[in-house]
Amino acid sequence: MTADNSQKILIVPLDPVHDVGAKLIARTLRERGHSVTLLQPDLSVEEVISRARQLLPDFIMVSRTISYDTPELLAKFADMCDAAGLRSHAKLVVGGMSIRKEMAQELGYDAGFGPQTTLEEVADYVDGKAHTSHEASHGGTKPDLTRGYKYDFVDAEIGELCVGIARRLIDWASQRTSPGIERAHLRMKLEEARLSGDVALANELRGRYSALTGGDVRKWYESGQPIPHTRPLAPYEAAALENMDNGVPVSLVSQKPLEPVNVIVQYGTGCPVMDAYHIRLSLGWGAKGAVHFDPSWGARTEGLAEGTLSHQHDGTVLTLENLRLLKRAIHPAALWQVRAHRGLNTPETVVLAHLAGADLTKINIVYGSLGAGTDPARLAVDGVECLRLAASFGLPYDVVTNEELCGVPARKAFAGMLVVATAGVLLGGRPILQPLFADSPEAMVSGFTQDNLVDFNAAKMIALKSIMNAPIWPGAPVGFMTQTQDRCQSSTMTALHAALALGLGAEAVTIASSDEAYAGGPISAQARVDTLKSVAASLKFFGSTRIAPTARAEKMAADLKKGIKETLERVYERGDFVAALYEGLLGDREDGAYPGRAGRDTVTARQ
Ligand code: B12
């Protein structure tokens, strides 16, 4: 070893032809200041030993691609290095496509590097540095999707309409309350009482809380009757979660292209333990965050249960205890979203998200009212409270437009999204616009996606950027309605939509697993990894190039913007946002939108 820490290295392709890996490693090590001798391929073991004896290197690094006879060849090589006395001086390292770390260890090599090893990894090993490439991808700091956005209107006319409608909505909601709002405030006080150890107060608050619940949740509070398809988590399951360290598992394959972008996954298998493993797996393969999906019945039942609960069907039960357990599975630098966007427990969900340490929530009055079965007046009053709570907790949220999946045209869905986002800004919050990147019913019927799936999605981004200075996080997942049950097709569609969205300036994308369209059972771990790998591959493919929409995208964007403005004008003229929801101005029966019934007539005047 020389004084400046430069190492003398012999690199040899022990292979008939394959030497590309060896050449790349030789170049990298030279760039780091080492003295490297690279031999040609197809030398005999004896010839290599003879060169090594002349050179007396600090490292002997061999490369092997072909898998035939590999262990025999490598064992012979290691033995001959021993016999020649080379190993007292040199470290023996093997790498290449046919190498596995375990095999190298068994054969007595000092280190082994398999396929997709990064060059930095090898150089760090030679330099004696611990390699932390994957951990570094999380950078130790959480991405802030809203940083740098001013939320001012680029389009002043649309801005004026949005502000006018949003102000009236806030005024209207401020005079009203609901059992959902009352429960949210009781829940805050209840958890405070528990924290301070005031058992009597906690019991009293819990009694008042349960009196405001309904259906199966009420039975659970009153008689302990289990909620259908749920069971308490077994002690061994809870222990598995509690003992889980929340470091990110290092991925087997470098997912470098995912490092600079925010790719978010969704989970909700029903089993918090399974979710925790899926989250960790996804973070290990380069995801930057995870979104919590709760059961659909949770949106239509007044009140949330307590305790750690497992659910047999889709969606993981929303309880503070479940969320707190799951929080343990989330790497501190990863984003975690708990959604509060559609049902009768939205304000309380924002409270739970805050108490459990979530980074984001999801709010939209319009989707829940027109596409998810909640009464518009109820969700409007609860939704405004959510916006207030989120602002007070400093929780950003996306404003989702899933009603597009019911058939509501984008112009109406976007008008609703912009009003809710504006109300959020007026209340001091940090909304994120969430257009769908999808082959929506409107797109199919109107032929917007007949030629390609790029233009209409691009038009949505162009239109929104020309209206408001706000972050965009297309959702959720990207490629909705384009994925089939075929996993290759599904991963490809996801990857291309993700590359398109990120290339068009989206702050983040949420991706499905490759069995998004598979309705035959739970989502598998492999399916989660499929799409993460595909997205990484597509990002590598496109790099700093961009998918170019056709001229039609600009025209679609202009039409979309015009449609948004016309919708907003109609809602403004109507003078009442909630009435506009019931009357179909933001999506009517013909569009496929039906004002929901859950929670009807539960809104009362605020005292
Ligand atoms: C390029 C290539 C060739 C070129 C080689 C050119 C050259 N000078 O290297 C040519 C066309 C000559 C060739 C020929 C053959 N090839 Co060829 N070839 C490939 C190919 C396409 C890419 C390999 C490559 O260079 N990858 C890029 C490098 C950078 O990756 P890498 O070597 O894995 O290196 C990385 C790591 O492994 C690690 N690493 C590598 N070495 C080392 C060393 C150390 C010390 C460390 C720390 C790390 C390390 O770091 C690198 C960076 O990540 C693969 C298939 C594929 N798509 O991968 C087939 C492949 C390797 N070839 C294969 C075969 C069989 C052959 C032939 C034998 C076919 C034949 N019967 O004719 C012939 C050889 C004929 C002969 N004369 O003996 C097979 C091997 C199958 C097996 N089970 O062994 C493959 C997998 C294709 C296949 N699926 O059939 N091939």
Explain what this protein looks like in three dimensions.
This protein is of the alpha/beta class and 607 residues long. The chain has 2 domains: 8-131, Cobalamin-binding domain (Rossmann fold), CATH 3.40.50.280; 156-568 and 578-588, TIM Barrel (Alpha-Beta Barrel). Helices cover 47% and strands 12% of the residues. It has 24 helices and 18 strands. The strands form 5 sheets. A 7-stranded parallel sheet has the order 14-13-12-11-9-8-17. It has a 5-stranded parallel sheet with strand order 2-1-3-4-5, sandwiched between helices. The relative contact order is 0.10. Cobalamin binds next to helix 1, strand 3 and strand 4.
**Stretches with pLDDT under 50, minimum 5 residues:** 133-138
Give average pLDDT, whole number.
93
What is the H level of CATH, i.e. the homologous superfamily of the largest domain?
A: D-Lysine 5,6-aminomutase alpha subunit
Per CATH, the class of the largest domain reads Alpha Beta
Number of helices: 24
Bound molecules: cobalamin
Radius of gyration: 29 Å
Q: N-to-C terminal Cα separation, in Å?
A: 81 Å
Q: Report the CATH topology name of the largest domain.
A: TIM Barrel
Largest sheet: 7 strands, parallel
Percent range for helical residues?
40-55%
The tally of strands reads 18
Strand order across the largest sheet = 14-13-12-11-9-8-17
- Quickly count the domains: 2
- What's the CATH architecture of the largest domain? Alpha-Beta Barrel
Strand pairing plus helix content: what structural class?
A: alpha/beta
